[in-house]
Design a protein that fits this description.
mainly alpha, Growth Hormone, Chain: A, MFS_dom, membrane
Amino acid sequence: MTLAGSADSTPAGDTSRSSAKALSALNFFLADVRDGLGPFLGVFLIGEGWSAATIGYVMTIGGIAGMLATTPLGALADATRAKRMMVAVCAVLAIVASLVILFVPTVPFVAASQIATGIAGAAIGPAIAALTLGLVGQSGLAFQLGRNEAWNHGGNVVAAALSGLFGYWYGLPAVFVLMTLMAAGSLVALAMIRPNDIDHATARGLEHGGGSEAGDKAPEGFRALLKNPRLVILAGCMMLFHLGNGAMLPLLGLRVAADGSFDPAAYTAATIIIAQLTMIPLALLASRVARARGYFIVFLAALVALPVRGLVAGLYGDLYSLVPVQILDGVGAGLLGVAVPGLVAQIMRGTGRVNVALGAVMTVQGLGASISPSVGGAIATAYGYEAAFLALGAFALPALVIWVIFGARFRAMRPTTDG
């Protein structure tokens, strides 16, 4: 199976070939936009004299901003027909934010840029999910989610490799320039998605023949999450997972930057490349497993990977431990990228509230992700990086227990044909 797939092999129905290719290209270029500068931000700020704790606090501010914005932006993705414009605004915000950090690396401006990046990242998730569902429908969703994730991770590999090379040759400012170019590329790909190929009723989870009344109701926001026990369980597990996962990769870069044992730009790029190369086949595999056995087993495997990753990173601090640590990162992220939106689409199918529900889940998981840098940075400052990695990995254990206990609610969930 190729990453791009083919018009004949995909169950995307009548979706045009050009829009499908453009969606793949969009996911590729958004790879360096969706998560902002990621671990390169910490490495850059360490060079500017910042402490690990201060970097963690600033990243937390951005995470909180994204967390607060995700549910309203998910509701917007359900309601608006300007889904492409949502993504375009995010790309522009990413460009402005990266340039601000490069030229004015002070706490107020970096914090403001992280807020903008957090909001942009919060909007991209529901917007891409809505575009995908609107283009391929429920029957093609699992396949397309796997393809989206594969292209996204492929973009991350290319961006990380170029960032490492340019950072080594020209210094870390070259990473900011590359991110700006990737954001511009996403705008070009976005313009190639034909608006007429997007079914906006299907994009929000309405069944065929669901009627306009369901589509005209005001989005429920958090009520869609709180009234549905399966969404509550899923969101809680994601919060615990990201509480442990959010700070792990930045801390790997900070550990190297702090002791000066290796070029930080090259090391950070290597951490990303190893993980992303793992995510590409895992995302495609997750798509196949979900269609054959359901989303439950895919999500379970992702939860198992994080405690093991924290254990390896905490007990083995040498350069060679980077490989298994980041392979495990790729396992978790590659599987979740398919499982989470797929589970939400199944849980909310027929309600017209798929993207606001996805936004609500992302809001709750964002709570864990936003706290993680502060928690990880504080533990690393007080007790060392080894203790931080062990503690972060342990946060996923309660999520694993919850998922196993309540798994009966999810075992039957697997991709189905359009209604």
